[in-house]
Design goal:
Layout (H helix, E strand, L loop, with lengths): L1 H17 L6 E9 L3 H4 L17 E3 L8 E6 L5 E8 L10 E4 H7 L5 E9 L10
Parallel strand pairs: 1-5, 2-4
Antiparallel strand pairs: 1-6, 2-5, 3-4, 3-6
Length: 132
């Protein structure tokens, strides 16, 4: 009897460990940014130096390197998209995890503020800060 309970507990622990999220995945609130950036930044350049395209599938996040591809999943609907990091933000005081461009938020169906899960799909070959 004791051996059966031990085997059952071990099976439950193994099932929980195998269902764990990827090592570089976070959950939090996303926000949207688009054409209003042009008032703040007339050069229209992102933090990595490229021209900002509000309708592109891009994002701003602090803790991963530029050109990292990330899967963003809207937790309420289950819809997900892959975006490329090309900017830094949102401001940490706001308590948000990621800023999505207008095009990315429309594709995700999460314009404004929404609960999302963000995971790294592919990186540029450098290590990133696992600060969250």
């Amino acid at each position: 009897m004791l051996l059966q309970r031990f085997a059952l507990r071990a099976a439950v622990v193994c099932a929980l460990l195998s269902a764990s999220p990827p090592a570089h995945a976070w959950a939090g609130i996303d926000s949207t940014y688009g054409r209003e950036v042009f008032r703040i930044n007339p050069s229209r350049r992102t933090a990595n130096g490229e021209l900002f395209n509000p309708m592109g599938q891009t994002a701003a996040i602090w803790d991963v390197p530029f050109n990292t591809r990330m899967r963003v999943t809207h937790l309420a609907t289950g819809r997900s998209i892959v975006v490329r990091v090309n900017d830094r933000g949102p401001h940490r005081r706001l308590g948000r995890l990621i800023d999505l461009s207008t095009g990315a938020c429309r594709a995700l169906g999460a314009c404004g503020l929404a609960r999302v899960r963000v995971e790294v799909v592919s990186g540029p070959g450098r290590r990133w800060a696992d600060a969250r």
